[in-house]
């Protein structure tokens, strides 16, 4: 039985599945979505076309699965409940540093450029990318903020909006300059400076005051 992404859940850990995923990631990032075919993925993976279709019903499903896997791997800290054992500054600092480092990495930028190239003529591909990547990350941060609000660690009216604004602050101007090829990959000091500034601004707005209200 296949799930709603077109995958056969019972085969996701197989060697051939991993070969297909690795090949797809390489081809999508090198050739773009339009330039990649299921035949090419099969050849690159060293498997039959039937094997590719046994796991994924369409190229769109394969692309979405690739994005979802990358998002889960690169934003792992957002998916873990151990954030709740940290104070808000520590948790948000971990998220901010990880998010900015990933967002400005060559692989993430290549993926974004692939999607942007297709968005005008293939809005379904853009929607799948958003659902498998950015939407998951925002949802994970929203869930963390809801938990922090519930235990009184943060004073937030709307956790979803707060999550979107937090990520917006982290992206800043650097992300668009990196997408356009106008900035080099930031070093650790650049990432720390921008991430720490975003966390400090967020906490000034949402840390509860001792006597009630926000800091």
Secondary-structure topology with pairs:
Blueprint: H1 15-31, H2 38-45, H3 49-55, H4 59-74, H5 88-103, H6 106-119, H7 123-132, H8 134-150, H9 159-171, H10 174-179, H11 188-206
Helix pairs in contact: 1-2, 1-4, 2-3, 4-7, 5-11, 6-7, 8-9
| Tally of structural domains | 2
As a percent range, the share of helical residues equals: 55-70%
* Average of pLDDT: 88
Under the CATH scheme, which class of the largest domain? Mainly Alpha
What class do helices, strands and sheet pairing give?
mainly alpha
Shape: elongated
CATH-derived architecture of the largest domain: Orthogonal Bundle
Give the count of helical stretches: 11
Beta percentage is under 5%
Descriptive report:
Helix 8 (134-150) packs across helix 9. The longest helix is centred in the C-terminal third of the chain and has 19 residues, at 188-206. The chain is mainly α and 215 residues long. The model is unreliable at 1-11 (pLDDT under 50). It folds into two domains: 9-59, Arc Repressor Mutant, subunit A; 75-206, Tetracycline Repressor, domain 2, CATH 1.10.357. The chain starts with 14 loop residues before the first helix and ends in a 9-residue tail after the last helix. It has eleven helices and no strands. 67% of the residues lie in helices and 0% in strands. The chain is elongated.
List keywords for this structure.
Arc Repressor Mutant, subunit A; 11 helices; 215 residues; disordered N terminus; mainly alpha; Tetracycline Repressor, domain 2; 2 domains
């Amino acid at each position: 039985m296949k799930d709603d992404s077109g995958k056969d859940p019972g085969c996701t850990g197989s060697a051939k599945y991993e070969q297909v995923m690795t090949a797809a990631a390489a081809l999508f990032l090198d050739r773009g979505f339009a330039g990649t075919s299921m035949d090419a993925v099969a050849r690159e993976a060293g498997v039959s076309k039937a094997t590719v279709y046994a796991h994924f019903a369409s190229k769109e499903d394969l692309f979405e699965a690739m994005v979802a896997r990358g998002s889960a791997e690169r934003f792992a800290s957002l998916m873990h409940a151990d954030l709740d054992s940290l104070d808000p500054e520590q948790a948000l600092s971990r998220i901010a540093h990880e998010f900015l480092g990933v967002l400005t990495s060559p692989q993430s930028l290549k993926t974004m450029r692939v999607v942007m190239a297709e968005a005008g003529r293939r809005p379904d591909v853009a929607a799948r990318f958003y659902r498998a990547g950015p939407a998951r990350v925002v949802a994970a941060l929203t869930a963390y903020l809801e938990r922090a609000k519930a235990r009184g660690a943060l004073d937030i009216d709307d956790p979803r909006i707060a999550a979107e604004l937090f990520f917006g602050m982290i992206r800043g101007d650097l992300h668009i300059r990196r997408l356009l090829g106008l900035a080099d990959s930031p070093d650790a000091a650049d990432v720390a400076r921008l991430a720490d500034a975003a966390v400090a601004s967020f906490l000034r707005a949402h840390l509860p005051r001792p006597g009630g209200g926000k800091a």
